[in-house]
Write a structure and sequence with these properties.
- α2 crosses α4, α3 runs antiparallel to α4 and α5 runs antiparallel to α6.
- By secondary structure, the chain is an alpha+beta fold.
- Helix content is 47%, strand content 18%.
- Strands 1, 3, 5, 6, 7, 8 and 9 form a 7-stranded antiparallel β-sheet that branches. It has a two-stranded parallel ribbon with strand order 2-4.
- Bound molecules: beta-L-rhamnopyranose (RM4) and nickel (II) ion.
- Nickel (II) ion binds next to β4.
Length: 311
Amino acid sequence: MADGRPALTMVPKTSTKVPVVSHRVLKTSDWFHADGFPIAVERRNPQEPFPMHAHEFSELVIITGGSGLHVTGGRAYPLAAGDVFVISGRRPHTYAGLRRLCLVNLLYQADKLQWHWADLPALAGYHALFTLEPAWRRRHEFKSRLHLQPEELRHVLELVEALDHELRQRSPGFGFMATAAFMQIIGFLSRCYSRSWNPDARALLRIAETITHLETHYHEPVNLDTLARIARMSKRSLLRAFHAATGSTPIAYLLQLRLNRAAHLLRHSSQNITEIAFATGFNDSNYFTRQFRQRFGASPRQWRQHLRAAG
Ligand code: RM4
Ligand code: NI
């Protein structure tokens, strides 16, 4: 185990326990082009043994063939062609039991990409794929991962090829085209997730639907009864599930959304502070100002003045 790989040779049907080993952290500067563009494609045909690691960036993995185990959080999960999952940088992971496991890694720097855009947050599969499944991987034993049908896999690989082509050419406009291709991949995979029929994925989608409800109704009063009805759960179970998945309560999540939206309007609109408070679902502008100060360390007025002064 000198290289950090657990000694596993058998491929079991469900997850198995494996020892937790130390890991290194892959650096953004080693894996992305020197021009700083925040998306890279790495194909592994096949994946060679690679020690336990985490990254400064995130990784979307598409399994294209062969078999092996995804090892993370002290567990090992069997992989097959069509499996798709997200590894946010901080989680140590590796592969084991490799039998010509082939995959595509889409490496991306989430903080540099403006992809949380247009109506993507209204797509339940997006929250399930990028937030909920990674958070619930262990609890759901990886059973809620996205699994593509063969024609879906074929299609996404075509999109990956278009992305890869732009990144190889790097001709003027490549950043625009590659970002567009990446967004198509994200949108397509999120829709595939929304169509999942497996019960564990459906369970995550019900929580994801409460998130999309918050994302699209933040400017209206939202109550827990409505969310519980959407999730088809008791309020108690919803609170527990929501917290396990997002680390927050629906109300705190909503407040966060409203404040972020308000910060955006302070910057990009000419509406006054009371108008912005109402437009983002606050019905009391004093309460809004208090919450805003707590979150951003400045009052809405100071925040706006500061941004204007900074140009
Ligand atoms: C490795 C392996 C890792 C990935 C790096 C970029 O071969 O697939 O998971 O993070 O490539
Ligand atoms: Ni990795």
